[in-house]
């Protein structure tokens, strides 16, 4: 399996289409909202968790997926509980050249959704390139548990270095 390169990009002006509205979709939507992008959720039934997040950047469409849903999307996440529908979404996106993530099959992904840890201006992405999600989740959790202490320590060291440079 190939290793995936961690590319950090500004998605604040991008549109994500999330098809499905279960637990996986809710986690993706929650994390994407932190980065200021527009999110469109399409699902026959939208969970209360996602409904509670609705605002001007989160558009909810409670209905079945239609190929026209991908027209304005920069990225698509297929996260339904229907593998055949996820595969159709992947096929539609591939045909139109839209990067897609199939939550039900890592082999159908143009990109992976990493474990994301944020603290102040720091953003850390953790992935196993699709091979071991449980390990990636555990590593991200360990980083999340320790990140405040690490960032605080590094900021103090940075301040100390800056003060020392002033005297040099």
Structure notes:
This protein has 168 residues and is an alpha/beta fold. Helix content is 38%, strand content 20%. The chain has helices at 23-33, 48-51, 83-96, 133-167, and strands at residues 15-19, 38-43, 58-62, 75-78, 100-102, 115-119, 122-126. The strands form two sheets. It has a five-stranded parallel sheet, sandwiched between helices. The longest helix has 35 residues, at 133-167. The relative contact order is 0.13.
Kindly summarize this structure in a few lines.
The chain is α/β, with parallel strands linked by helices. The protein has helices at 23-33, 48-51, 83-96, 133-167, and strands spanning 15-19, 38-43, 58-62, 75-78, 100-102, 115-119, 122-126.
List the helices and strands and how they pair.
Layout: E1 15-19, H1 23-33, E2 38-43, H2 48-51, E3 58-62, E4 75-78, H3 83-96, E5 100-102, E6 115-119, E7 122-126, H4 133-167
Parallel strand pairs: 1-2, 1-4, 2-3, 4-5
Antiparallel strand pairs: 6-7
């Amino acid at each position: 399996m190939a290793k995936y390169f961690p590319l950090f990009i500004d998605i604040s002006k991008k549109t994500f289409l999330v098809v499905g509205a279960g637990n996986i979709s809710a986690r993706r939507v929650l994390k994407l909202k932190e980065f200021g992008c527009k999110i469109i959720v399409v699902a026959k039934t939208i969970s209360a968790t996602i409904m509670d997040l609705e605002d001007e950047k989160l558009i909810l469409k409670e209905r079945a997926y239609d190929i026209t849903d991908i027209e304005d999307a920069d990225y698509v996440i297929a996260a339904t509980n229907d593998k055949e529908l996820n595969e159709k979404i992947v096929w539609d996106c591939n045909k139109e050249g839209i990067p897609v993530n199939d939550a039900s099959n890592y082999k159908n992904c143009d990109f992976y959704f990493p474990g994301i840890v944020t603290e102040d201006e720091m953003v850390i992405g953790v992935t196993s390139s699709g091979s071991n999600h449980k390990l990636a989740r555990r590593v991200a959790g360990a980083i999340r548990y320790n990140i405040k202490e690490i960032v605080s320590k590094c900021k103090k060291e940075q301040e100390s270095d800056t003060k020392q440079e002033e005297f040099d």
